[in-house]
Amino acid sequence: MSAMTIEKPWQRWLIRLGVFVSMTILVVPGAWVVLTAFRQNIEILAKPAVWIPQELTLKNFQGIFGLLDTQQGLPVAQYFVNSLVISVTSTVVAIAVGMMGGYAFARYRFKGKGALFLGFMLSRTVPGVALSLPLFILWARLGLIDTSWGMILVYMSINIPFTIWLTDGFFRQIPIDLSEAAQIDGCTRWQAFWKVEFPLARAGLASAAIFAFLTSWNEYALASQLTRTTASKTMPVGLMDFTAQFTVDWAGMSAMAVLIIIPALVLTFIVQKHLIAGLTFGGVKG
Amino acid sequence: MANVSLKKVVKRYGREEVVHGIDLEVAHNEFVVLVGPSGCGKSTTLRMVAGLEEISDGTISIGDRVVNALPPRSRNISMVFQSYALYPHMTVRENLGFGLKIAKEPEAEITKRVNEAADILGLEPYMDRLPAHLSGGQRQRVAMGRAIVRNPDVFLFDEPLSNLDAKLRGQMRVEIKRLHQRVKTTVIYVTHDQVEAMTLADRIVIMRDGYVEQVGTPTQVFEKPANTFVAGFIGSPPMNQLDAIVANGKARLSDGVEVPLPADARVSEGQQIVLGFRPESFAPKGHSLHGADRSVSVARTVMIAEPLGTETILFAELGGKEVQGKMLDPRPVQPGEMLDFTLDLTRLHVFDKASGKTLRA
């Protein structure tokens, strides 16, 4: 693209306009949620819609934490802890197991390797919701309904195949000579992995980790089936607390959505550099 | 003492055998070069010595230890890879000291030895750079430095110069030779370049298709090639090889030219042979390398002349094939010009046509 030269200013402006329009379309729903979270209920429900907020407020946030007299609070803190425990645990396990799996696929030759890899990829083609009924029956028999462990198991099994696929690509990019050189330099195979191959694959592992974390953090469909109470309900499921039989508390829901977005956003910013390197790296692999 | 001894070493991948029972003795401090075309098993053999490939059969010993079952780290070897295999996330200093750090040498000792290696190879200005910020020649030097800091029993080189351009390759070749003179160690060096083999080796091992074709000093393999393959592989331009039949104790070429055979050639009347002679033994009168005692003259038309400065390579037809001659102290030669060539009879090679083996004592 850098070879393309734009000579006329109006062409440049046309491109900027195009970018602006498409970005607007992308950003508006998110921005609307954030705006709604800081608005008064009257303004939110006004018809015709009020596009520019007249007054911003923190009342919606105070409301969901039960800081206002008019409204009962929700166990947001408990939901947050559940989400965090489930997401972090399933991500850590998925990365640990997936990294080992990816390394094995990249470095070792074993029987049925191709079929196994294909199997992992095929498991990704099944939509999560399709699993909800069988999972529900299975989890009910195992007594895993409404437990954090139940959710951790589900997210692990979703994330491990993906992590294997991603890290396999990363390890493949690292020349095998490096591990061999390290072994000749006195390392065991294990040391060679930790001192040479692991540091070089860090970018890939970081992006795999954020993908796994966001998958677990944002997942709604399965969690809504398999969780019941504050014992295991995650933040996205908690959003449904704002719907009653005839009304929806859009203000509260939006405030909670903002609370869900913030950690994901912070995490993404932290690993952004790795993420870009990771995505392009994976792209090269094809 | 770190001699390396290979006894009936075999390598199989599944059912396919790629190295067929190699025997080789490398003496203490000897520089041995394994050379051959790609796929001849030379790298596989080296990797078996290194411990990076399992040995399917036979034994490999370093010193008086059989190392078959030992992992690379326990063999006290170091290796320079074709790709250099420098650790991209470590500086030159860290790359050099990595092996010593793994061995838990004291910090002061590491610093001392790393600095020594850097001094030998002229790496001081680059010590804090990452490999990505080095040129090909510098990376090559770091790879060699990483190999020497550990004071190994045996140095292994796997085509270390093949990624460099021609000029740098020549420089590094000299540096490797100098390094070996300075750091006396046993060396096994793999290359497909016969010039590297000739210039570096104490002894050359010529391999083809998983077999050893000949082992000898550079002079031996050049002057007394064991078979037509070695004859064609060593020397540049390659030896001319012409089919001939033994008639009246002479070799008769397909175009009727008769060449007297050396006295020690064990041939029988009517035998099909290959007559070999190097381009430097086939020169226009007055332009030959050796003032030959015995020679035959043939007048031939020059088809192509390649002037190289100190010599000119001449292409002419002999025995129904195109042969190359070397004209020393050259004068300008035009294609189509008829020249009187002399064929030096004291430097003839005679091979059996069927087996390719030499027929000279």
Summarize the structure in words:
The complex is a heterodimer of chains A (286) and B (361). Chain A has 286 residues and is an all-alpha fold. Chain A has 2 domains: 9-64, no CATH class; 76-285, MetI-like fold. Chain A is 72% helix and 0% strand. Chain A is built from 14 helices and no strands. In chain A, helix 5 (113-125) packs across helix 7, helix 7 runs antiparallel to helix 10 (202-218) and helix 7 packs across helix 14 (272-285). The longest helix of chain A is centred in the first third of the chain and has 32 residues, at 76-107. Chain A is globular and about 70 Å long. The two termini of chain A are 21 Å apart. By secondary structure, chain B is an alpha+beta fold. Chain B folds into 2 domains: 4-233, P-loop containing nucleotide triphosphate hydrolases (Rossmann fold), CATH 3.40.50; 240-352, OB fold (Dihydrolipoamide Acetyltransferase, E2P) (Beta Barrel). Chain B has 8 helices and 20 strands. In chain B, strand 7, helix 5 and strand 8 form a beta-alpha-beta unit. Chain B is elongated, with a radius of gyration of 24 Å. The chains are: A mainly alpha (286), B alpha+beta (361). The A-B interface holds A 175, 177-178, 180-189, 191, 195-196, 199-200 and B 50-52, 71-73, 77-79, 81, 83, 85-89, 98-99, 102-103, 146, 150.
